[in-house]
Design goal:
The protein is mostly helical. It contains 14 helices and two strands.
Length: 361
């Protein structure tokens, strides 16, 4: 049994594990990484195992259940970035108003979460040192943290009038729908029929593949991923929601170039990836004329995309349920194989190789 820490603040309700470790190490002038090394932890983030949870509970003199409540969810669906944190500026401003310590919420660390459940505002990314300075009394006075929070809150609230229309509300509702579907699937709940006849595990697998395709650069040169290159009908409806970073990704170099949701801390980029997953999977889409069948939108949006990305996605579809692919997806090989025989006239619009009996295209 380890000796308990002399001074250890209690974890707050809904606080993230990394945020709590940062506050615990502050009296000892230690960062979360340095504190984890002193306690012999293998990680300072949310990917801690059962041994670390017991060790933290012993050192902090808190129940094990309180430490477990700080985790954000499955490690494969938790953000891994250490130098940037995802925040809701309204929540942090409320912390200052209640005179509570500024702390990060565990729900913000969920890789599929891009909107604050309490305020329905899109989350934002900020450097860790801006909210948790290492030397607050000298190089970074404590007064600068509230000033930084209020300034970022004012910037996030400075919305143009045309960005508050029906198109924005529809897109926010669509992305929140897929957020709720992923949350339910992680709890074992089967998604609705609008997503196809899929189990919870199959649904999560397809979401992971689609978002990875949207977050990766498949070009032979430095460029932005599809998540940052949305159709104009979507990006113009709500430009404040989709604000990806301007940094270009390296050229495609195989599987090592694939980026996933946990590897993408910026909420604006993950928001674009979730839109792609919703537009290509869901039965209807609120802001386009191609609302009824997802194959119509696949044929419209995927045509002209980078062949390397479509080839990667086509290979990933081999692990998807065959009936689901035949019923809900177009044949991606039509854009990959030169000299492919013309498709049957009955299904030329959707571009599939399966006979269609529905005449309401």
């Amino acid at each position: 049994m380890r000796a308990p820490l002399p001074v250890c603040p209690r974890p707050l309700a809904g606080e993230a594990l990394r945020s709590w470790l940062t506050r615990v190490g502050r009296p000892y002038s230690l960062s979360a990484e340095d504190l984890a090394q002193c306690l012999s932890l293998n990680s300072s983030g949310d990917t801690v195992d059962a041994v670390n949870i017991v060790l933290l509970a012993e050192c902090a003199r808190v129940p094990i259940a309180h430490v477990t409540a700080l985790l954000s969810g499955p490690p494969s669906w938790t953000l891994r970035e250490r130098h940037a944190c995802v925040v809701c500026w309204r929540c942090l401003a409320e912390d200052l108003q209640r005179r509570e310590p500024v702390h990060l919420r565990s729900i913000w660390r969920q890789a599929w979460r891009v909107f604050c459940p309490q305020h329905a505002t899109r989350l934002d990314a900020a450097p860790v040192r801006s909210l948790f300075p290492r030397r607050s009394r000298r190089s970074h006075p404590r007064g600068r943290v509230p000033e930084f929070i209020h300034r970022r809150l004012q910037n996030s609230c400075a919305e143009a009038p045309h960005q508050r229309g029906l198109g924005r509300e529809a897109i926010v509702g669509a992305i929140q729908t897929i957020e709720n579907a992923i949350t339910g699937a992680l709890c074992g709940t089967r998604p609705g029929t609008d997503w196809g006849l899929l189990s919870a595990k199959e649904f999560l697998k397809i979401i992971s593949d689609l978002t990875a395709w949207a977050l990766s650069n498949f070009e032979a040169f430095r460029a932005q991923p599809p998540a940052a290159q949305l159709p104009s009908i979507v990006s113009m409806s709500s430009p404040k929601i989709f604000t990806p970073p301007r940094r270009l990704l390296p050229p495609y170099g195989g599987e090592r170039s694939i980026r996933t949701l946990p590897q993408s801390p910026h909420p604006g980029l993950r928001c674009g990836a979730l839109w792609w997953a919703y537009a290509l999977m869901a039965q209807g889409h609120p802001t386009t004329k191609l609302r009824r069948d997802p194959r119509d939108r696949q044929q419209h949006f995927l045509r002209g995309r980078t062949p390397a990305g479509l080839a990667w996605l086509h290979a990933r579809m081999d692990a998807w349920p065959a009936d689901y692919v035949a019923d809900r997806w177009v044949d991606l090989s039509q854009w990959l194989m030169p000299g492919l025989a013309p498709l049957p006239f009955t299904d030329t619009i959707r571009g599939t190789n399966r006979a269609v009996t529905d005449t309401n295209l």
